[in-house]
Design brief:
Shape: rod-shaped
Number of strands: 5
Largest sheet: 5 strands, antiparallel
CATH topology of the largest domain: Alpha-Beta Plaits
CATH class of the largest domain: Alpha Beta
Structural class: alpha+beta
Number of helices: 6
Strand content: 15-25%
C-alpha cells in the first residue's frame, strides 16, 4: 500500500528532527530479523537513550539531503534501519554490535559520527571501546594510586616507630 505525500513529508520531517538531535548514528540491515528480536533490540536501545527507526531509503535520502549529510542510503544493502544515539556517542554502536553478535540477521553496514561517515570496521571499533564509567574508574584509580602509595610509606614509618617502641618496652620490662 502506497503512503500519501503528506505521510512521506511527515516521515522526512521526523527523520530530519532526529538527525538534528543525534550525536551518532548506526546503519543496520535487519533483513530476516524476527519481530520478537527486534522488540528486544529496541528495549536495549531505549535503555541507552538510543532509538531504532525504519523508513524507506528514498525518504532517508531526502532527510539526509535536507540536513546536508553526504550519505546515500539507496546504496546500502538490504532493509536499512537507522539507530540514533542522543546522549552517548558510543552507546548505539555498542548495543547494535552486541546484539549482532548473538543474532546473525542484524548486520552493521555503517555509521555516522561528528559529521563523518563510518565504515563497518570503524563502528565495530567504536563499539569495543570501554564505557565512560570504566574510563572514569580507570582515571580515578590512576589518580589515587600515588596518594595510596604515599599513605603506605607514611604508615610504614609509623609502624616502624611503634614496633621499635614496643620492643623497647618489652626489653625494659624483662629487666
Amino acid at each position: 500500500m502506497a503512503i500519501t505525500k503528506a505521510k512521506k513529508q511527515e516521515v522526512v520531517k521526523e527523520i530530519s528532527d532526529k538527525l538534528t538531535r543525534q550525536k551518532s548514528m548506526v546503519f543496520a540491515d535487519f533483513t530476516g530479523l524476527k519481530v520478537k528480536d527486534l522488540s528486544n533490540l529496541k528495549k536495549s536501545l531505549k535503555l541507552s537513550v538510543s532509538e531504532f527507526k525504519v523508513a524507506k531509503k528514498t525518504l532517508m535520502a531526502v532527510a539526509f539531503n535536507d540536513q546536508k549529510i553526504d550519505i546515500d542510503p539507496e546504496l546500502m544493502p538490504g532493509q536499512v534501519a537507522l539507530v540514533f544515539g542522543y546522549e552517548d556517542e558510543v552507546a548505539p554502536a555498542r548495543v547494535v554490535y552486541e546484539f549482532s553478535r548473538t543474532n546473525e540477521h542484524l548486520k552493521i553496514i555503517g555509521g555516522y559520527l561528528q559529521g563523518q561517515a563510518l565504515s563497518v570496521d570503524q563502528v565495530v571499533s567504536l563499539a569495543k571501546l570501554p564505557t565512560r564509567e570504566q574510563l572514569l574508574g580507570n582515571l580515578v584509580g590512576s589518580l589515587s594510586s600515588p596518594m595510596r602509595g604515599f599513605a603506605q610509606v607514611l604508615n610504614g614509618n609509623l609502624r616502624g616507630l611503634v614496633m621499635a617502641l614496643s620492643e623497647i618496652s618489652r626489653l625494659a620490662g624483662s629487666r
